[in-house]
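User: Structure please.
Assistant: Input sequence and predicted structure:
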Amino acid sequence: MHRMLGKPAGRRGGSGPGEAWAIFNAALRIRSDPAAYCRRVAGGVVRYLSARGIDLEGKQVLDAGTGAGCVPEALQAAGAHVVGLDVRDHRLNEVAGTPFVQGRGEALPFRDGVFNLVVSSNVLEHVPDMAGSIEELARVCRPGGHLYLSWTTWLSPLGGHEMSPFHYLGARTALRIYRALRGRPPANVPGRNLFVVHVESVLRHLRRTPLVVKDLAPRYWPSFRVLGRIPGLREVALWNCVILLEKRSA
């Protein structure tokens, strides 16, 4: 496995079990107040980056798979110049507007090395080509820049998204059970817009890229990053995995 940094300078970013519980409660109200949930999650991205010593002031940042638009809002408030990208514009009206480009993460419409930081938050499990997507994110990151990569691991309790916990019986079985219980298919259909992504498979691919792992941790309680160093356990215990990467200089 890649060599990782020691303890970061500065504060831990205010994340821990309490923050994870607050995010869970916000998720329960996501239908009535989606902005509250996505803003809390987005705020965690900025706190994590700050805790790992990433200076956002004046930096060029791409949020690939921007969804509701809360991550660019939070990054912009921290002083970054942010562009959001997604296949369609799903940004919430109440979220502060930032520049937006329509496109796909597997074929980013940007030149090589244009961004200091590239963020991919809760996207990787929704793209059919995990390896190709990571390579594109790395391409548009400049040497010495960073990539923030997070996704819900398949073997975590919420790996099947709305089909959880039936995904532990396999994707096809989970789909059949969900349809039987709800009378309709889920929004996230295995093989269409939800894919099995394991921590080990991502790390294995990263070894073939110009990206160096600087940190691997549970996204919502990064102070327990020791869990990320235990193969097998990390596939379940991380819930949502975050990997901070640095692009090697040529």
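The beta strands are 60-64, 81-86, 100-102, 115-121, 141-152, 211-218, 240-247.
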